[in-house]
Amino acid sequence: MKNNINFLDLGLQPLANNYLSKKDLKKKEKKYRLKVGINLKTKLVSINKPISSKIMFNNKYPYRSSMSKTMIKSFMDLSKFINKKFNPNKILEIGSNDGSFIKNFSKKKVIGIEPCSNVEKITKKMGFNTYANYWDKKTAQKICKINGKVDLIYSANTISHIQNLDEVFEAINIILNENGILIIEDPSLLDCLKKNTYDQFYNEHIYVFSLIGLENILKRHNLKIFHVQNLSIHGGSNRYFIKKNHNKRKKETSVKINRNKEIKYGLEKLSTYKQFTKRVISSKKTLKNIFNKINSKNKKIIGYGVTAKSTTILNYCKIDNSLIEYFIDTTKDKQNKYTPGTKIPIYKYPGFIKDDVEFVFLGAWNFREEIFKKEKKFIKRGGKFIIHTPTPKII
Ligand code: JHZ
């Protein structure tokens, strides 16, 4: 990205969500050099060479937000909060995926935008007013013409996936009412650095936002953060509540508290990121040692929850099908495929971890509480999980 100083090189990486079919295994897979950098002026942290949205978010997109109870509950709780606090008449979701958020509202009230047409079809079938479009000014104008302006816009794990942030917020300004509220939710850069979750960087995550970085972009569009919630979801996310500048809503102390936390940790300084890189390199070595040690004893390791994040870990640490026998996952569109780059088979979740398995690499570490609850039997019989955050270990 223009004016970025790169601080981390995660090597050659395939498309994070491009699960391979058996036929694909014979073909040469396209890989992209993944470097991460900071723009010291805006403080935005981003990957070096974003791939076109059309390549990443297509009509074969496998990710479904409804695959975890944690996400479903989070969307449900937020919907209740939104109705109570803001009582909006019309709501728009950018990146509505398979409808986990919009389904908490009446069909007359919500509009969903989802560029992956295979996923958008699901919500359309459910009877929701959804559009298979990328979020840009053209889409905003189109939706506004058909439906009028909206009182609230919500977007979880989507804005960080769009390269042109200026256009994102210009489009938002087109369709958001003057007193409207914008709520954005994405992984937090501070959590990512503190927990060494370098796997938050993959080709879909063009940015990992900090409050200070986001504020610098919002300023250009007369938008202001008036409240921040720190969430545990996806390993630590921030939910930003944003208003148009002239809206008289009071700024809550959470903004200042979070800004100070980020500055105190050093998110404005390059040296902080250089330290992070040192920890990432050490994390790679430790994780690889754990795998090699277990492998040398001929013990079976499987993976649990194949994620975009695990694509980064496996390819960066060179952990392939010689170290992980197979992955299990509840997502239909990932099953009977192979992991990008590392070619590990993915099977349907059989309802529990099979008895011959002793070690499980947790690809979906962000749902560890939910998974540990589900896999009590495995834990009771002495089964162990391998996890890479904050430092790689067996638990
Ligand atoms: P999960 C995706 O990232 C892509 P990923 C995207 N770029 C993004 O930002 C985030 O989501 C939000 C499975 N699973 O949510 C389901 C089980 O099998 O961490 C999923 O395939 N059993 C849009 O891919 C995967 O794990 C379970 O019990 O990093 C989790 O993927 C649970 C809880 C999950 O997203």
Give the neighbour order of strands across the main sheet. Answer: 6-5-4-7-8-11-10
Inertia-based shape: globular
Overall structural class, as computed from helix and strand content, comes to: alpha/beta
Strand elements, count: 18
Biggest sheet character: 7 strands, mixed
State the low-pLDDT regions, or none.
none
- Kindly, what is the distance between the CA atoms of the first and last residues, rounded to a whole number of angstroms? 38 Å
Strand content: 15-25%
* SSE arrangement, N to C: EEEHHEEHEHEHEHEHEEHHEHEEEEHHEE
Structural Rg: 21 Å
Mean pLDDT: 97
Counted by DSSP, the helix tally is 12
Structure description:
It is a single chain. By secondary structure, the protein is an alpha/beta fold. Helix content is 33%, strand content 24%. It contains twelve helices and 18 strands. The strands form three sheets. A seven-stranded mixed β-sheet has the order 6-5-4-7-8-11-10, sandwiched between helices. It has a seven-stranded mixed β-sheet with strand order 14-15-13-12-16-17-18, covered by helices on one side. Helix 5 links the parallel strand 7 and strand 8. The radius of gyration is 21 Å and the shape is globular. It starts with a strand and ends with a strand. The model has no long low-confidence stretch (mean pLDDT 97). Bound molecules: ligand JHZ. Ligand JHZ binds next to helix 10 and helix 11.
